Amino acid sequence: LVGGPVPVRRFGGLVAGGAPVAVKVPPKARRPGVQGTMQSADGPRLKIGVSEAAEDGKANKAACAILARTFGVSAGAVSVVMGASNREKVIHVAGDPEILTAKLVSL
């Protein structure tokens, strides 16, 4: 990924059953999808553009769907755990943390 280290957040070490991923989700993007990494005040984040507006959770749902496709998991395995009403979020992806991290590095 361009822009810095892998934006996987591990609060208190490895997270059982998945990996939290720090993201920035700009709504109404012209090109939806994973757009690389970027630096923020609290470290690197994966940038995920969504074409949906940031209303009624539509942008969050779209970001989760993009991450589910990216990691090859079901939509139910991905959820926003922090920052639901903010562009900067932490999204939890359920699965083996080592496999998920390897997939993120390979983007």
Structural description of this entry:
This protein is of the alpha+beta class and 107 residues long. It is built from 2 helices and 5 strands. Strands 2-3-1-5-4 form a 5-stranded mixed β-sheet. The relative contact order is 0.25.
Task: Describe this structure in a few short sentences.
By secondary structure, this protein is of the alpha+beta class.
User: What pattern of helices and strands is seen along the backbone?
Assistant: EEEHEEH
Biggest sheet descriptor:
5 strands, mixed
State the low-pLDDT regions, or none: 1-7, 9-14
Average pLDDT figure: 84
Strand content: 25-35%
Spatial gap, N to C terminus: 6 Å
Helices and strands in order, then pairings?
Layout: E1 18-24, E2 33-40, E3 43-49, H1 58-71, E4 78-82, E5 88-94, H2 97-105
Parallel strand pairs: 1-3
Antiparallel strand pairs: 1-5, 2-3, 4-5
Features:
5 strands; 107 residues; disordered N terminus; five-stranded mixed β-sheet; alpha+beta; single chain
